[in-house]
Predict the 3D structure of the following.
Amino acid sequence: MDYVFNEKIFKETFNVQEPDTKSQDVYRLRHNPNKKFKLFPYKANGKIHIVYEMEEIISDFFKLALGIETEDVLMDDLCQKMRKKLVISKEDEPIFEKTVKKMFFQDGKFVAKNIGLHICQSKTENKSVEDLAFFVFSVLGLDDTDSRFIQEAIEKYPYNVMESLVVDSIASIQKEYYINEKKYFVVIKGIQEKFKCDFHYMLANGMTEPEDISKLLDLYYFYYVTQTCVTLDNFGYGNRDKRVDFYYALDWEKVSGNRKCCVNGWEQLQQKINHLFCHSITLELINQHRDENLMYDYIMIQEYIGEDMAKDLLVAEEIKKVEKAYTDCIGDYKKFDEIAEQSGINDTDRAIKHLFKCVEEQFLNTERKRANRFYIEKFEEYAKNRWLKNRRKSGIVLNLTEQDIIFLTKISIRDAEKIRLNELFKEYEARGIFLDQTSRKYLQEFFAKLNLIDKKSDSGDAQYVKRIL
């Protein structure tokens, strides 16, 4: 199917008001991302809650992976179901109810503390949690194989007596759930396979507590979004399989401004993150065509064109139509004609970059800069809470805590007794974590303090890190 912009669909998607009802000098549309092209789960609204902790999405994430829907677990209903499986004297009932409440409820809400109960965690009032869970589920590519691994882990978990009773009792409130919603577009590849290897290992080896699962989701959510930002900023030059190295510092080390964690870390990354909303809108604009089942990102557009120069010219003209339809509705910004021509690999790439600049300039130079900021902060504030540390004069850097190091080392070494230190660094890098030589030295000292360094080897000089139990 040929790529053709459809202005009617554009007007419907962006709620365009015709000029006869509003002056040509005013803003006549609404920026609505994720209608035709689903990129990120964020909203350009200051009233929308930010998800700071990935532990909040575990329940929805597991329900999506298992294809299960559940009802809320209520204290009285749960106790009633559990009583049917027990013989409890009347005088012991208050003690029984108190025990159930203490073990499984907090502030009146059911709290899941093991993998068999994750799916029944009480729902949060934060709609952003559901949106983020679906995003992570989509971009990490979970499928039936992952569902089977989860189910096996649920069956093998060493429940205590009370937990077993609860798991059996809540089975009746579960029902199959079929996902009809369009999934998010996957911009980069390769991360999914690594995630699944780690996820399957954790499920098979009892690393299923909320703390461990949330660390894994933290790691790959941050990895996916940051690398996607880089790929999007490359437009037609983007490569789904290529990664950019971002350097972290250890929480306890001192940092100077010339270190890689300062130069090739958050400072470099933030420039890309500032474009989140503009890319989301640009890709939404490009996808105002008739094919409901097809989502084009910048890379797909280039793949569609290939080496066909005639097709390149045709698509570039369609993108220019997109730009005209869009800018005609932005009457409160008058400097679109001052935006310079862009460089690019072909006419289409240049046209898309110019469209992007139009979107960006109207956000930065009108009152809509607040909407742009609201959208960006949904990820930025999460990152500040989870992955960043202010080093004052050295600025804000990507940060690894001791707990992060222990977790990364566990999933890197897995069942091996030990791993060469240099190989361990490569395992970190395979998960998006890069350390310069200074950080590596501090990390080596950290392992030595934990008595995890083994200097014995066939060569006599190689250093190994022993498995963390």
